[in-house]
Amino acid sequence: MGASVNPMTKNDLEPISPAEAKNMYLDARKQEVSQSTLDGYHYRLKHFIRWCEEVERIDNMNDLSGRDLQRYKTWRRDDGDLKPISLEGQLDALRIFIRWCGSIDAVEPDLHEKFEALMPKLEKTDEQSETILEVDQAEALLEYQRKFEHASRPHIIIEILWHTGIRLGALHSLDLDDYDEEHERLALRHRPESETPLKNGKEGERMIALSPEVCRVIEDWRDHHRHDVEDDYGREPLLTSRNGRMNRSSIRDAVYLVTRPCYYSNECPKDRDPDDCEAAEYGGYCKCPINVSPHDIRRGSITNFLTEDVPEKVVSDRMNVGQDVLDKHYDKRGEEVKVEQRRGYLENI
């Protein structure tokens, strides 16, 4: 009979800080997933690192226990005011990370199994994210920007995102010569070799028609406000900072900044005082309970196109999303809207 193998104990683990473990994990996944997926891992795990460093003062992954994971779940739920579906996504990303940590002797190898009891129980209505930029909010924001911030960097970001419904990564990838002034359109191109991939690779490449209003904003931005710079690959980005191509996180921060109702309407539906609100401070814009992310603008844009009776196939092609995914995750029309739209078609038969 062979000798028995003793289970690993904490004494057998190798010390490593949470931040170092996260960096190793992202580096290990770099060749396996797209940059946008890698960015998603970073976003979901950064809250856990912050909790370890600032809340619990955990400086060694070896010390992590099931009770710690329960405390993190409660903290993250309350700190981010997360819906069950969002909390589940972040906990699942953490579970996969913890399982990987077990494979490199950073935590006990069965620690990831504790997540089975931690995952929130989802109702059917929880399976979809409901947050979108509503039409009236988009119109109020764009009216403000067109009047007071015409062709500014936040303005061109919102105009393009709302009018095209493209993803954050696609907006980040645009170059000056991707804008065709003569034909009023944008070309989306997959260029992973110079760090601007599209989520769906070559399948995501397409031409997008623009309205004259959006074209005017792009041209005024190009001619009067854009920094005349190149990125690290000698390309001329459409969205720029002083140092080159505007990065994804800066685009996201700009969206968080200007979609706060107090920014464009001087009103706060939550009755907060802007002088005391943490979301009014630099770096804290994402803490606003009402503003939205770039993906929420995409969701709102798609819903608006559908509400305006644009055929689903046209919306699917323009936004580069399958019709099944479109129905489940992006179409936020109410049932009353849908039935009246169907009535409109039937009355013409």
UniProtKB/TrEMBL annotation:
One annotated GO molecular function is: DNA binding
What CDD domains does the entry give? DNA_BRE_C
Domain Core-binding (CB) intervals: 16-102
Pfam families, per the entry: Phage_int_SAM_1 (PF02899), Phage_integrase (PF00589)
Q: Does the keyword DNA-binding apply?
A: yes
Please list the GO biological process terms of this entry. Answer: DNA integration; DNA recombination
For this entry, the protein name equals: Integrase family protein
Which InterPro entries does this chain map to?
CB, DNA_brk_join_enz, Integrase-like_cat_sf, Integrase_catalytic, Integrase_recombinase_N, Integrase_SAM-like_N, Tyrosine_recombinase_XerCD
Known Gene3D superfamilies for this protein? 1.10.150.130, Intergrase catalytic core (1.10.443.10)
Q: Which domain of life is it from?
A: Archaea
Key word Transmembrane present in the record? no
Question: Which keywords does this chain's UniProt record carry?
Answer: DNA integration, DNA recombination, DNA-binding
Domain (Tyr recombinase) ranges: 128-343
